[in-house]
Design a protein that fits this description.
The chain is α/β, with parallel strands linked by helices. It contains eleven helices and nine strands. The strands form two sheets. Strands 1-2-3-4-6-9 form a six-stranded mixed sheet, sandwiched between helices.
């Protein structure tokens, strides 16, 4: 077997739980839970995260998912032990393509699930976020950060590049030069600095992080299901569309909302209140 199969089997066969799931009505909290190692993305943690998120995203009663970390950090990113093993296995028959499989199907699989699911994802940064863990957070629909949170651009120091969607996210938030400066300087970004840069949407006292994330879940719950399901792909597509294509997407989508009971009831209430 190749490296990819070995890593998947290691994750599937793990008996210890590295991910905790708390389901509460129309929402769920998924916690990366290997705090002694700052929730590094080991094979078991990654496999268990994907399994948990796939199950929750397939449940139509779950409107929002909060992704957070246990202990002092959100995630320290890639597991250095796994990176060392990958280096040792470069001479395998599959070469770097086995590493590509892990990055695409596991790291990238979670990324695509967050982006393409109709479910709203809220990243609750309880501490430092680096590497692929940071990429997952930046892909979520909203990021709320504890005052203790830290954005850690560790790519360059390791001789790596912005990975798993990070270059896309950074250039759209910071522009090319801002993203390049973020990468080249490699300096830690505090929660307040991240807010000023537009990398997170809210900063709260550490002890209020869970409550703040729950308020975002309340906002999602107040949306009609069709509005969330249609707005998420519309807004994500608009990031890459030309202006006229973005307008056309809205023009095709909006009439569908006119047919919904929620819209019709809202119009009747507004008319009744104005008369």
């Amino acid at each position: 077997m190749g490296l990819y199969s070995d890593l998947v089997n290691e994750g599937v066969d793990a008996t210890e739980q590295f991910v905790h799931v708390e389901r509460r009505g129309d929402r769920a909290v998924v916690t990366l839970a290997e705090p002694d190692r700052l929730n590094v993305l080991s094979a078991p943690l990654v496999i268990q995260t994907r399994q948990a998120l796939e199950k929750l995203a397939a449940d139509r009663d779950v409107r929002s998912i909060v992704l957070t970390g246990a202990g002092r950090g959100f995630s320290a990113g890639g597991d250095l032990r796994m990176m060392s093993l990958a280096e040792e296995r470069l001479a395998d028959a599959e070469g770097t393509t086995d590493i590509w499989r892990w990055i695409r199907y596991e790291f990238g699989g979670i990324l695509r699930l967050i982006a393409r699911s109709d479910t709203a994802f809220i990243a609750a940064l309880n501490g430092p976020a680096a590497g692929v863990g940071l990429a997952w957070a930046l892909t979520c629909d909203v990021i709320v950060a504890s005052e203790r949170a830290m954005i850690v651009p560790a790519f360059g120091r390791l001789g790596l590049l912005p990975e798993v969607g990070t270059s896309w996210a950074l250039t759209r938030r910071l522009g090319y030069q801002g993203a390049f400066a973020f990468f080249a300087r490699g300096r830690h970004v505090s929660a307040e600095q991240a807010y000023e840069m537009g990398l997170v949407q809210e900063v709260v006292p550490h002890d209020e992080l869970g409550a703040a994330a729950d308020r975002w879940c309340d906002d999602v719950a107040a949306l009609p299901p069709h509005a969330l399901a249609m707005a998420k792909p519309l807004l994500r597509s608009a990031a890459d569309c030309a202006w006229d294509a973005s307008v056309a997407l809205e023009e095709f989508a909006e009439p569908n909302c006119f047919t919904t009971q929620r819209f019709q009831e809202a119009v009747r209430e507004m008319i009744g209140g104005a008369s």
